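Input chain follows. Return structure tokens only.
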Amino acid sequence: MPISPVRPTAPLPLEEPDLDRYRDLQQLAYRCLRLTAGRLRPGLSERQAADLLRLTFASAGVHDFALRPQVRFGPARRPALLPGTGPRLRPGTGVLLRCAPRLGRYSAPAVLTLRHGCAPGTDPANAELPCYRGLLLDEVRGGASPARLLAATAAFAARRGHTLASPALLSPVSPLPGPLSPFTANSPLPPGLWALTLQLAAGSASAGFAELLAVTSHSACWLDDDLPHAGGPLQLGTAGH
């Protein structure tokens, strides 16, 4: 059953129709990632998989991106490869799909990670993503600065045998309009809608997500709890659906 949309408990510098547009686009992004993941077959190259992801978005009416669709096989960290020399998909390979579709002035980041051919929810690192999501929200609600957020996430990851392949990256999607005092890595996040991306290195694969975070003057909430990494079962699409 779909989860009711999350509503901020304090005013945001956005009208409710705008929040709905961001929420709908985020849902569309993850729907396209899930559909593409369900259509991946052994032997595909990363470029072929990325082309499939772009075609999935095109079928949904999306042709513009803040971050173009990308697919990566294998570990989160690896040496740079020449074009056409990347790995081919094999059963059990870690897969990372990422993008940020844009419709008009709205954009939403999305990252989906899994192990190809393995039952959803069986990968330990991906199964822990709801814990990371909860940690990040608690830290932001507690007034954490980007620097503190990064330190807390790195310490949390180390306790679980993970490392940050990329830090908890925050970027403003729609900050408070008008004059805004500059914030630094050591200042709490100002009110607005923020894009947060987390990517972990977990053995031979990646685990992570990207999501929109609504920050108000005295609290914060994820824009939507009905997402693959939020704790529910991961349902992958198929070529016939």
